[in-house]
Amino acid sequence: MRTAITPTGQERTFDDDEIIVSKTDPQGRIMYVNDVFLRVSAFAEDELIGQPHNIIRHPDMPRSVFRLLWETLGSGRELFAYIVNLAADGAHYWVLAHVTPTFDGRGQIVGFHSNRRTAAPSALAQVEPVYAELLREERRHTSAPAAAAAGARLFADKLAEQGLSYDEWVWSLDTERLTGAAR
Fold first, then answer.
1. In-domain check, residue 163
2. Alpha-carbon span 7 to 60, nearest angstrom
3. Radius of gyration for the chain, computed over Cα atoms and rounded to the nearest angstrom
4. Tens digits of per-residue pLDDT, 9-27?
């Protein structure tokens, strides 16, 4: 069993033209990672293959966002999400993840594919306070399912106040980068 990784507060970045790639089975166990994933996460490939993808979950990442991710993917839809990950050495790195289900010839989900790009600082300036608020709400609950549910309710309420769906909110944070427009 792997020892828990302690966050160091050191942020790691990667180049805007690099993409972190991973593929998982339907249960979220890592089946493939690219070299950028290995370099940025500071894990060796044999430490990742077969492990649950949450091996890189940072403790400051709200459970409610992952709940939304799994609900969306489970329904066969793709999702974009800002995620902070935890590297093997305790550093963290922010990504804009695009996660899609992979289907077999019968339309059954057989895994998931994730491409992750750098997250724009302007988007993170908007994401971080929202995630901090979700975490405060989640930490008021003793069980992980109750915490995720409470955070999800709070997030849904915040989005409803703005008149936005989750997808609209994500797309509103950094339209230029998400659409690939020139800077």
1. yes
2. 9
3. 16
4. 999 999 999 999 999 999 9
Domain with 65 in it:
20-177
Tell me how far apart the alpha carbons of residues 109 and 163 are, in angstroms, rounded to a whole number: 31
pLDDT for the residue numbered 175: 65
182 assigned to some structural domain: no
183 occurs within a structural domain: no
Q: How many separate domains does the chain show?
A: 1
Asked if 96 contacts 122 with a C-beta cutoff of 8 angstroms, the reply is: no
- Determine the pLDDT at residue 177: 60
DSSP-based helix, strand, coil % in the chain, nearest 5: 40, 25, 35
CATH number at residue 85: 3.30.450.20
**What's the mean per-residue pLDDT of the chain?**
93
Q: Please determine, for residue 96, whether its predicted confidence score (pLDDT) is greater than 70.
A: yes
User: What is this structure's pTM?
Assistant: 0.90
DSSP helix/strand/coil, 44: coil
